[in-house]
Amino acid sequence: MEEEHRPNPDDVLRRTLAEENSQIRGKLKIFFGYAAGVGKTYAMLEAAHAARKAGTDVVAGYIEPHTRLETLALLKGLEQLPVHQIPYKNITLREFDLDGAIRRRPKLILVDELAHTNAEGCRHIKRYQDIEELLKAGIDVYTTVNVQHLESLNDIVTSITGVAVRERIPDRVFDDADQVELVDIEPADLIARLNQGKVYQAKQAEKALHHFFNEDNLIALREIALRRTADRVNQISERNKQTSGRGDYYTGEHILICLSSSPTNAKVIRTGARMAYAFRGMFTALYVEAAELKDMEEEQRKQLQGNMRLAEQMGAKIVTVYGDDIASQIAEYAKIAGVSKVVLGRTNTRRRFSFSRLNFSERLSLLAPNLDIYIIPDYSEGSKKLRKATRTVNNTKLTFYDTLKTAVILCLCTLLGYWFKNLGFSEANIITVYILGVLLTSLFTRNKIYSIVSSVLSVLVFNFFFTEPHYSLAAYDTGYPVTFLIMFIAAFITGTLTMRVKEQARQAARKAYRTDVLLETSQKLQRAETRDEIIRETANQMKKLLDKTIIFYCVKDGKLGEPRIYAKENTGETILRYKEEDERAVAQWVFQNNKHAGATTNTLPGARCLYLAVRSNDTVFAVAGIAMEGETIGAFEKGLLISMLSECALALEKVQLNETKNEIAMQAQQEQLRADLLRSISHDLRTPLTSISGNAGVLIGNAAAMEEEKKQKLYLDIYDDSMWLINLVENLLSVTRIENGTMNIHADAELLDEVIAEALRHINRKSVEHSITVDLKDDLLMARMDSRLIVQVIINIVDNAIKYTRKGSHIIITAEKAAEKKEVVVSVADDGGGIADEAKGRLFDMFYTADNTVADSRRGMGLGLALCKSIVNAHGGRIWVENNHPHGTVFKFTLQAEEVTLHE
Does pTM surpass 0.90? Predict the structure, then answer.
């Protein structure tokens, strides 16, 4: 028998969520070509006319003003959105009006040139970001793009055509499109169109034919476009198979690339992205922060930040580790993270020394033999300049204070050497002093070059001052050169090891700091109980980490709240500028789009702050702003910042879940209360009502022939049932008023004797079947109470005793003043069967009834004792139940005592 196929619940949920999102999100269709002039815009306009004829609301948002008459003719009949005009250097730039498109909100909008870079002053730096916002607003988009604009293919296109394309889009935009239509013509036909002036003007066309648009380039570009389109179709097919539960196509591959500040590192990133796409595996970008890179110049830092942003755009997870041995750090991370393939960049550097047997990739192969290592050659002039600059910065950067320290230590060693010589110490002791000097130099200076220079100078100074002939660099003894060599090696090794230990200690301190910050943040957020506390603790931790002003916008009821500003200490900056409407608009955009924006980003970069979404999955709980002041955040701080915000999001999510849980519990409690009430009313009211109607029917039909004694019995039964209903309804109304807080208590000093007597006049008529006595220690005992309510308490307790005890039982009501407290204790004791211990804990719960046998077989609703507890608590007293010895039950409650005032 064939095994029944059951779909994976996670796949079903993922597919359901994707379908729900697709119903809200707009559809994106890309008209894809391999070069300008193949007819992308023409095909897009034709498709727009077809959609318009089908009844779709179509608007031309932005069409590139080509000089192609056939294309421009297709704009007729289509509504065109006015362009956004931006003045720039005495000219006016025409850009797509994003806000105007969202206000117009058509069903379908045409936006040409997907890879276009917007002018300064637009909300986003790139046009594809504008289109993403349109899609999120539920607007369908038609757009165009060429193959050379795909980020992952940029290096390949550059190597083929010799032209570096600057306007690029992330591959995810292309891959996530709902439709991609390949617009294709033969390269020979495209060249013919160029010659006819249908693509560019005559001079521009002639130049293009001799450079980018030669036949070999066009054939290669066409092949790449066809292959990329086919790869996308295969990816969609396999994705559908996976989500439908027909197979798991994840191969388990994990691609790792290494980030650096090299301009050519982008080639490594794109290669790794293409491999991750081809193998359908995970993609990680690892940055190893070594000690020699801590003094990186600003230009290199910007290049590193650019490479990190590129890796993020290509879908990589950014990870930062610390250590001098880069190969060891990569190998260690690869083992922990399960990396299967590593992509590295290789340059044409030569080995500096003949004894350096292994290069970087060879060392990595030895440390991680199971890794597949892919080397991407790098022979560009940019990388050579960068390496030269890096060596200059990291190896020859001298400072006045470090030079002064080195000179002072060397002089002190020389003076100490003269003292040792005068004391008759041997040359070996003096050599030890100089080695100690090299060690101290390594400790007190920051660059390796000082330890090397100190080693060389120590040998020369020792030779000059302490060997024969003195004050000369010559040496008579043939053994001195060996002594000098050993001295230099010992000093050099000592200095190198000292520098390494110092850097390792600095890195260990940095790792410890990271751990302490995250641990402290986690502990503080765990102790925080409310949203305000969580936001305050997170802001303080961010301020402590970055030393910058922090702004937080909380989200409540789906709306962005007012900004909370946590200014950094000892600053004279005004915080009012962070409350401006422009800054709030950026935060609002971040909240609505669940993306980062503001300073140092490609979206609204003119803002004063960097705004980050405090999010968990697709839910934004708050928006955090960081006052950048023209600065950037380093990789180390950024990693900590993201971790902090993730912790904050989890804490806020926990609070929200608790609130939702409490609401659900309250709703469930209310539903249970309603169900119990309906059950009790339907069951417990039916018996007395049936009895009343039955007895009344008997009296109506047979009153004349019925004996007087029997009629009196029926009258009493009707009366008892009516009084039971009246008490029940009174209890229900009283409970409702107390629960809603609408019961007003008018407390006055009252005599207990009078209150108890009033209660006994209203109790069940079956009280004559029991012995009820009142025992007051003081006839003038008074308590502060609302007598009407306390009478109801006594009635309920006594009626409860009558109901649950046999005929002839004894019920004793007592009241006395407590010995130590200013309280009056009222007790109602019976000698019935008693109450089980397990029932005592729930006896005062609403709708709870013990399993005792009821004397009249009438089941109560469980409201009487619950009402008693509410009334007594409202008076500031307590109520409880005890066993009555040798058998029975005692109910006790307290009231505030009042003194009797006698007037003469």
Answer: no
